[in-house]
Amino acid sequence: MTRVTESSPASRAYDVFNGDADGLCALHQLRLAAPRDAVCVTSVKRDVALLRYVPCEADVEVTVLDVSLDANIEALGRLLEAGAHVVYYDHHSATRARTHPRLRLEWDDSPRVCTSLIVDRVLDGRYRSWAIVGAFGDNLDGVAYQLATDRGLREHEIATLATLGRLLNYNAYGDTLDDLHLRPDVLYRTLHAFADPLQFAAASPSFSQLEQGYWEDLSRVDALAPHFAWGGGAVYVLPDAPWARRISGTFANLLATASRDKSFAVLNERSDGSFCVSVRSAEPAARPANVFCDGFPGGGGRRGAAGINSLPGAAIGAFVEAFSLYFTPTDGAPTAGRVYCGPVIEEPRQ
Q: Residues 83, 31, 97, CA angle at the centre, nearest 5°?
């Protein structure tokens, strides 16, 4: 359930961000570099239409991180017309972007870029360790590892940053805030006390809480067989349960990391019989995940990873067929080896 709170007359700044690792780490870098007392507007990972919760008032300062511009274009237009000033950092679809004197857009949809890396670029690497965490959380392991080694980090330190990124990302998955271990606004305030992510991992109880929950949830999918598999990838179906909603995105990332030449879809069953879908593309340049998901109502995302908010149960067969055809490797055949087996708006601080 959405909870909207009234802001005080003095509240003129809003930080709007995705509650996943990339959104958290992007905002954290910005506020380490430029502290600002702002109202946090965030939610579970899939709930990205967040600009509608910012009041349309003149001279409001709005910073947006890691939520699709296309999904927020109407609300963005209203804010700009009202006189708000908006800075927008993102790597998702922005086909409806437009220029405006009060809009600064820092956007890059390269498959090797996430919002944390865009912010890192703007800040000239000032808080790069947190950008590395965000990149690991966004499944950009190769990019993150290279940045970490270039920085001179040791292997055990890199492993800790990778774990932290995955845990922050894992915590964002769920249909509602009740599915999450920690609300993203609370998690942001907790990690913002640490300039060094290694210190956060060593000292914060939140790290231990997320790590325990992660391994408990992941153990449930160890023996899970694919619903459908072929030479180019596989489709998995998870049950309607909080643990399954929490682990779905992480599970999709782990599948993609373990088999980089294959594409994957992870479907989460919902109580109404529909499915929430996470898609990972093995060829984001040639076969973008967001282009595939855009073909379904409620679909979207980015080239490497995308999703569908609500796939009707009756459409699973059509989805699987379309998925296998779209993500068939250039040198493969789809018929070979087939196997069927709410947002948070934080109370402004006084």
A: 45
